[in-house]
## 1
Amino acid sequence: QVQLVESGGGVVQPGGSLRLSCAASGFSFSSYGMHWVRQAPGKGLEWVAFIQNDGSNKYYADSVKGRFTISRDNSKNTLYLQMNSLRSEDTAVYYCAKEPGVYYMDVWGKGTTVTVSS
Amino acid sequence: EIVMTQSPATLSVSPGERATLSCRASQSVSSNLAWYQQKRGQAPRLLIHGASTRATGIPARFSGSGSGTEFTLTISSLQSGDFAVYYCQQYNNWPPTFGGGTKVEIK
């Protein structure tokens, strides 16, 4: 079945870096765009970044532009989010999600938690 | 960026009753509107896309309607597993944006 499994979350100090991964299975990963969406504690959903199926185009929320980089390795069926210069406001559960060809999210992973704290 | 506004913030409903959730866009998003359900401690789940098309495996008691700037998610007869937070999301304009959510709780 279609599955997305995030990993790489943890506790990091302000200004630090972290790389999240999302392992995909059960579908043709290289055929679909992928999103990262985050949810701060007790808050709603916030779209973070998107990458097209072949990695040719990448888009970012203004709140992370210049600090986060989305990438993918289609040979490994894996999506990444490199997060640099982390701030306390980046504390959230980070979900990866599959895009079915239009820009909504039809399959979600269970999420990985990032905590930015000194 | 398009702002999505959901109302009410909290909806108290008895099991078996109908629930009606609203979502308003700050400008037209055509029918490019999705609804998600998120249960406590779980990831969101796609319910509706294209404003009214149920996702695979979603029961018929969930229905979506609307276009332009006004949208509605209706749950015809609430079951115990339907008590959750519901989010709308527009994907007509970049960036995709979510509403703040409506929590459906047991009355």
## 2
Amino acid sequence: AQSVTQPDIHITVSEGASLELRCNYSYGATPYLFWYVQSPGQGLQLLLKYFSGDTLVQGIKGFEAEFKRSQSSFNLRKPSVHWSDAAEYFCAVVGPGGSEKLVFGKGTKLTVNP
Amino acid sequence: GAVVSQHPSRVICKSGTSVKIECRSLDFQATTMFWYRQFPKKSLMLMATSNEGSKATYEQGVEKDKFLINHASLTLSTLTVTSAHPEDSSFYICSAMEPGQETQYFGPGTRLLVL
């Protein structure tokens, strides 16, 4: 069965510092990959997604993610973090074609220090 | 684009009553909608998949008679928690998927508190 691992439960960075959130997946084929962000008490907002093609994808709010097939990874990055980026980040995968259910990682909570 | 709304955003009810939560896709038609439940500091748990015009598909362990799902139109799905009990208190989130887009867009969630 497919699974998603986000190794870091909680990350703290200073405002202006760079950020990388890790995501590894286990799936027989290359799945469709997503990063979502959730602010406290809110729903999930799509940051970016990868289906195929260029392995470096750009998203909203200055985020990008790189798909590395050899490492089964889809890490999220941002060069300079803003205080408003403090939130919970979820990596998710679905089988190619999107017909199966979305499988989420357990999330990484980001704290931003002033 | 791809905006999903939920109503109400929060609801408090007495034990034994029923609560209806609406999920609407505002700017696209969604043949498939999903209902999730999220416990504090936890990831999302899929409860059911709802396809317009057909019966919902429930995940294992989810009581279909307790969590009634109706997807009567391409822009509206409803989740009714019947005979709610305190253990049903949770954060319920819906998502909607446009045909052929293979991407789920999430609503803002509904906080349910059963007293």
